[in-house]
Amino acid sequence: MYTLGIETSCDETSVSVVENGRRVLSNIVASSLNLHKRYGGIIPEIASRAQLESIYPVAQEALKEARVRINAIRLIAVTYGPGLNGSLLIGVSFAKALSLACNIALIGINHIKSHIYAPLLSRNTRAGFPFVGLVISGGHTSLFLVKDFDRFIPLGQTVDDAAGEAFDKVARILGLGYPGGPLVEKLALRGRANKVKFSCGNLDRELDFSFSGIKTAVLYKIKNQKSRIKNTDKADIAYAFQEAVFDDIIKKTVLACLKKKVKSLLVGGGVVCNNRFRLKLGMALGNQNIKTYIAEPKYCLDNAAMVAGLGYQLYKKGVKSKLSLGTEPT
Ligand code: KG4
Ligand code: ZN
Fold it and tell me: How many angstroms does the Cα of residue 242 sit away from the middle of ligand 1?
């Protein structure tokens, strides 16, 4: 069965064709990132205007690359939230119009949950339920106990900044540009261990996260050294920041797996592109007898294949949306 996935929750316009929830036949991603770079962050109005222009050609390209005609599509899965409302509206309106015009079933998908599905794409792996799902992205840092594709139980989340957002802000403080994650990762490669130390906040709820304190600590570190700061100092700071954030996330993820006695962990979201994170997580879970499924880098960042994949699984369970489907930005 062919599913058409549509994802427009932030600056990307992505459309994908996925067969039986796993086999990705096409996954086209158009980004308006270059239009936002000079502002140092995503400007919602610019994002949604670009999406309005690109949604139709991107959908055409996705069908063409997959060699699937629209009348062979059985399901349209579209992200309805969370995300930027103007952007979500483009995807949801397009999906509803296509569903109505071509008489295809429609299903609205939660963006955070779709990131957790990403490790299952293009693989035959069966991660048995229940498993722990971890999402680390620009908008979210969340842990779930996943009992089934329609039963996600929240275990913990950030109480302030998301991890990716903290990377972006620290990159700006270090004068690196946007998006910050890959730039901080690159700089941290030249950083030396034990030159600087940062830590993340501990919270009453032990599986919650907080990254705004560490971002402020980086800011003060830079301010205090202002005129004397060298590039080596910046690299040491990037290294220490990255280590502290990842140590905190990994510690809480292992704790969640042990507390819930699960045998597998699924991990997705833009920050998961980070090679240092992938290495550290692998090392931490290798000793724990917990099987870890990490999304391929191309499915970590926002993409429509993960939306189509989760959509297919929910549809098989009888879930469907009506044409009155609305957006849920938060
Ligand atoms: O999942 P995503 O594409 O969008 C959201 O749903 O938010 O994630 C984007 C985030 C950005 O904050 C970006 O800086 C971060 O992922 N990111 C990284 C890396 N690549 C992207 N963070 C750390 N290291 C990376 N290599
Ligand atoms: Zn995302």
Answer: 13
